[in-house]
């Protein structure tokens, strides 16, 4: 008779012959997940575990997407106004820059070669007020090709610039100095004329031809574009340029282009790429991104620990049930799988809900920012502090997958010990005082 009972229990999925995650095991696991009045406290812990995993996964996805968006926006703006490769002379000044620029622009993969004369000045307005600025002298035809500037002229035009009679300044600089199109801006350079009394500063006023707005406040408040010939005269660099900036099709292919550019130059040159010039900045971004990932992972870890505590309490509460199942022929593996599925279900559902919530917020990130700004009555994500005019978010598929895998792994690991403890429960001890 005992053999017949064991045989029947095996056929029903209770014994060793039952398949892993059988219908019987799934039904019992689902039964333990449902809230009942006497198990309300356990259900509350399970609910907190679910919410914790959901919020942890969503927060990770949102923060990583925002940081990716930050990097993409900053790179596009930094590389939109600065060259990907900076070519500087070694054996002598670039007096042949028109011909050299044409040679370098003809290298496959190079979109544009921009000869430049640069210098630091003090910019001031007639009515008072001054600020430090970087003057970049460039040809009008080159600046027209630089779409980051030419397509973002907010006031005025490039007609005066092309004729050599005007300069372009950023909107934030104009606001700081109280200047508008048509006003005069006075530039003071410490490297002026040499006199018997020493070097005297060079002071000259220029008419503002247009105002540009790149969208990065650091550039909009500090850069002045001046016609190349005028900049050569102002900085005592007649007939030469200090560097030639190259804009390429793919900034990540800089290493492959370097030997081609050196060969096309036909002379000794020094090449600096965008990664070297911004190494500290982008390294700081990467470190911050990695640290944020590790810190926010702790939210998911805490939620996983809640799964452990909730399952341990559930095992204690279901001791008699486990004992009865064991006496009916359920194997230790079946008991372990039941409680494993109970805990894993919380992790899986919480992770899925977290992904959905994270994607929803990322898609509507700017609306969310404006809503909280309206609720709090303050300006969240101030452009003057963060350099960008709106909150960016860019989700990365591989990164999202890694977050999901991490959350599921922590959830599954958290269920192993309580499930193993349930499978080791002695039916005799559990039923002794029942």
Would you kindly provide a written description of the structure presented here, covering whatever features stand out?
The chain is an alpha+beta fold. It folds into two domains: 222 residues, no CATH class; 176 residues, no CATH class. Helix content is 57%, strand content 19%. The chain contains 19 helices and ten strands. Strands 2-3-8-5-7-6 form a six-stranded mixed barrel. Helix 3 runs antiparallel to helix 18. The protein starts with a helix and ends with a helix. The relative contact order is 0.18. It comes from Rhizobium leguminosarum bv. viciae. Keywords: Cell membrane, Lipoprotein, Membrane, Transmembrane, Transmembrane helix, Transport. It is found in: Cell membrane. Belongs to the ABC-4 integral membrane protein family. LolC/E subfamily. This is Lipoprotein-releasing ABC transporter permease subunit.
